[in-house]
Amino acid sequence: MPQNEHIELHRKRHGRRLDYEERKRKRTAREVHENAAKAKKVRGLKAKIMNKERHSEKVQMKKTIKAHEEKLNKQKIAKAAPEGAIPAYLMDREGQSRAKTMSNMIKQKRKEKAGKWSVPLPKVKAVDEAEVMKVVRTGKSKRKAWKRMITKHTFVPEGFTRKPPKFERFIRPTGLRVKKAHVTHPELKATFCLPVIGVKKNPSSPLYTQLGVLTKGTIIEVNVSELGLVTTGGKVVWGKYAQVTNNPENDGCVNAVLLV
């Protein structure tokens, strides 16, 4: 036996350790963070080499994902039938070609999962925390400054129960809470006052999304059941996403465009 194969031999005889798979999974999960930390530190020629490697890896990954997304779909060829005799079993059959496409429904579902939409306002100026939150000083001598008052419009769900005022960190004033939004349908060219279901994403910060802060560019979910929109399967669409297009704190209301 060659001298360098002692590890393989041991593995054949005794097998792997019991937690091998778990340790391997954790190692691969850590790799991403380690690579990111390395990329921040590395400089000069090494940085160029590393970036080139990472770029090629990303390209390969995108190609793999695209290959998984594609599915075979038959399409009719708009060509005249060839001249000459055609067998009886081909008489009613039209020419077909196989093209790799995805059905709209799958695309829609994937978009919803990834949260990627062609939105009316693709780039929005980030809102500073000092602008959104006002420091509320508490305590006998007003020395404690851990509470924050939200100065923008917010959406609070119906079943929300406040914490006791003493322990509530983020205060959302009742006067600035929003339940409905003026949503414009881009194809129908009409505006409807629809109830808000929830805040999907605030581009400024994940914290604002959690708190339901409504600023310009925020993606909200609205109840469109009264519009009578129907899916390809014949089911009534209940919730749809819309993007806030105005500054609610200036106008006193929320205006949004439906993402179709």
Overview of this protein structure:
There is one protein chain. This protein is α+β, with helices and mostly antiparallel strands and 260 residues long. 32% of the residues lie in helices and 23% in strands. The protein is built from 7 helices and 10 strands. The strands form 3 sheets. It has a 5-stranded mixed beta barrel with strand order 6-7-8-9-10. A hairpin with a 4-residue loop joins β6 and β7. The mean pLDDT is 85.
Give the gist of this structure.
The protein is of the alpha+beta class. The protein is 32% helix and 23% strand.
General form? extended
Number of strands: 10
- Name the poorly predicted regions: none
**Relative strand content:** 15-25%
What's the helical proportion of residues?
Answer: 25-40%
Radius of gyration: 28 Å
Number of helices, counting only DSSP H or I runs of 4 residues or more: 7
Distance between the termini: 67 Å
The major pleated sheet works out as: 5 strands, mixed, barrel
Taken in chain order, the helices and strands follow as: HHHEEHHEEEEEHEEHE
Going by helix content, strand content and strand pairing, the class is alpha+beta
The averaged pLDDT comes out at 85
The side-by-side strand order for the widest beta sheet comes to: 6-7-8-9-10
